[in-house]
Amino acid sequence: MAWRERRTNQLAAYHSRGACLRKQGGNPKRGRLDPRFRGGDPAEHVLPVASPITKASGQVPAKATCAGKAVIHGTVIPAKAGIHLRFPLPIFTLQLPHAFVDTVLALLLLTPALALGAQTRKPPSASQAADVPALLETAQQALNRNDFAEAVKALEAVVKAQPDVAVAWFNLGYAYTGLHQDAEAIKAYQKTLELAPDLFEGRLNLGILFLEQKQSQTALEHLRKATTLKPEHARAHLYYGRALAQSGQAEGAAKQFQEAIRLDPRMAIAQFDLGQLELQQKRPAEALAAFQKALALDPKLPQAELGSALAAEGLKDTAQAVAHFEKYLAMKPDDLETRFHLARLYLQQNQNEPARDSLETVYRAKPDLPGLTAALGDVYALLKKLPEAEKFYRLALTAQPDAADLHRALGQTLLDEQKYTEAEGEFRTALTLDSHSRDAAYGLATSLYFEKRYAEAIPLFEQLARVPDPPSLLFFVLATCYDHLHARPEALANYEHFLQLSSGRAPDQEWQARQRAKLLRRELGK
Asked: Which of 67, 293, 355, 392 has the CB geometry, 3.0–4.6 Å to 343, for a possible disulfide?
């Protein structure tokens, strides 16, 4: 797959669920690449916080914010601040530390039938009643220190003792997510939704998991439901849009991204997703506008710089593309393939030294990257550093021994180094692999010329002279070949033809041709 296509298909490979876990102080190993245009923090994959669990009695108000106490059923389902608890939640009280107010909210969509004291369920035994609060406390503390395995152990014990506690299933799904056990996480979230089918956070998290696994149709079901449950939730629309985009419904995806932007005008990642969608639809101008809006909101969003670079390339604005690639690589210096691509753009702009520096950086990190040694050979040849060019062309040929153009390039480098016999061998190999290569034929003829094997060079030059629009200097070289062999008529004819074509473009050769032509005319009696 070409570099541009890969980058277009992996543009948002910087914010997986691990980005959210790391932001909350979670598992640093969760940052895997995501080729599905994810970006920003995954909505509601937020770590529950620890706090003392104490007995409480009575009911909470119909609306209770996360600013103080939130009464929940044994543990916590986290979400964004500013959402309200809307249900009477008896039994336990959770004290939320102020440091988590902006990121964590204890939520639970519970009906009285799900409460520990519900009439529809068999009352727990004395041992179970004593164990469950302690297990929930253990799970919360484990999640706070990112010990997902310990949290799973405790929460599995809870759901085994009391299998209809929705919050325990939800937090179990989250803990499995932290362990990369997505299949188990999905089962836990599905069980959560069996008990609380209208739980917004459960729908959203489950939809995100299915989206990551490219099960877009299943993801659509849950994310559509999430937007129905909370139509004012911007990130729900963002992920719903991503699911629509993944399933090929570009128009619907665009509407969801635009709705997310309407609900939260400062959501940079929604502008990015919209730009990515435009880029996929081959609308680079619209894509660039969206990426620029994303960068205005968040100048440190690396994938928006990358998207801007790709969009500028689509608009044939190489200078602007280079500027965005440079900014992107300042934030993501380890993206070697993009650095390699930038070097090629430098070469297009005749910025040979920046190209060399970029390629050397890539070579130090990943010397076996396909095409890299050949590119280094090219840039050193352009810089007239011939030994380095020869070295890298030879390295390239060890990986691609049948690449005709590499043999031709090495032959040209050897020719410039005046290693004529070696150059001849490379040009002959190139012609064996590609008999139609005019450059290889010209290189071979030139090698033979400098080896003073004029009789062998002449047929090649004559053949090249018959192609459309041959270079004028070819006739000068051909004339000198005949001249060295004392073939005066042929030499004179080619000198005169060269002078007709050159017209001041090669003054030194023109002077020589005039002098030789005068002498040859006298010798031929003309």
From this structure: 355
